[in-house]
Each structure stands twice: as C-alpha cells, then as structure tokens.
C-alpha cells in the first residue's frame, strides 16, 4: 500500500457518501472514484477538503458538517411554484437545472424539485442548505500528479477510449 499522503500537487481519487445526521439517510452516493489534483480545485466543501490534507489511500473517515456554515440556512423565498402552463416544457422534469437572472443581471441556478399535473416547483437553495450532514470519505488513490493533470485540475480525459481497451471496441 502506498504511503503517499495528500498534499498540494497530489492526484487523489476518492468516493464518498453524504449522510443526513438526523435521519441517517444517504443523500448523495459517489461510487465511481472522483479524481482531482489537491490544491488546484475544490471538489467538496472547504471544511471537508481541509480534512483530506495529510491522509493516505485506504483511509475511510467521516467529516461532520453543519451546512448552514457553508451554504447558509434554507431560504423558502427561493422555492417557487408556478402553474404548469406557465413553464416551458423543457423545464417540466424533476432534476432539471434552470439558470435564472434577476433585474440586476445576477444569475442563480434553480433545480426543478416537483412536477404534478397542475404545477412545477423550483428551488434555488443548495440541496444541503440548512442540513447537518456527515461526509463519509474513502480515499482510493494518492500519487504525484502529472504536469498535465495539474494544469487540468484532475484526470485528463482520453481522446479515444477504445484505443486503451481493444475489447471495448465496437465489433
């Protein structure tokens, strides 16, 4: 097992769960390893990123997080319900992200959270706003990042995925 620890410039792959502290429900599950270069981009909330520093592959740990400190409290004024006939068809699917702009030209992302026969509800709150959660982190890999990965901020996508694995080529 590698003894490399997470510091700036290391390529890291991890998986994680976000668990609601009150209900113990899993809110988010990332099972496919997420790769990034530590110190170049922030893939998780700052308090979680800080807890990664100095850890090694194979470590599994939990970081409790009061999301009020990161995303602020939930603001019910950011929840809007409109008559379905007033909403364009492309925005009538739960999970659709809608970028909206106010009179001052500021943009905010809203998420369609509910659709029924008569209405569509969108929510501009971060899904974790107002919650207390636990990030359950599993570090899969820590190694020196390549120059290309440092520039990109993570794993560099391959131009032709089929050239790496001939078995995956169409027949």
């Amino acid at each position: 097992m590698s003894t490399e620890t997470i510091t700036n410039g290391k390529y890291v792959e991890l998986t994680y769960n976000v668990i609601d502290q009150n209900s113990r429900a899993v809110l988010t599950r990332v099972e496919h390893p997420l790769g990034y270069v530590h110190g170049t981009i922030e893939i998780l909330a700052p308090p979680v990123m800080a807890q990664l520093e100095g850890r090694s592959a194979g470590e599994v740990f939990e970081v409790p997080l009061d999301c009020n400190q990161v995303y602020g409290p939930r603001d019910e004024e950011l929840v809007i319900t409109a008559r379905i006939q007033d909403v364009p068809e492309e925005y009538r699917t739960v999970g659709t992200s809608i970028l909206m702009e106010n009179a001052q030209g500021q943009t905010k992302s809203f998420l369609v959270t509910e659709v029924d026969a008569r209405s569509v509800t969108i929510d501009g709150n971060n899904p974790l706003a107002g919650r207390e959660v636990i990030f359950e982190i599993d570090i899969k890999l820590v190694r020196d990042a390549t120059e290309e990965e440092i520039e990109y901020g993570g794993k560099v996508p391959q131009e032709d995925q089929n050239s790496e694995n001939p078995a995956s080529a169409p027949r």
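Residues 161-171 have pLDDT under 50 and may be disordered. The chain is about 10% helix and 40% strand.
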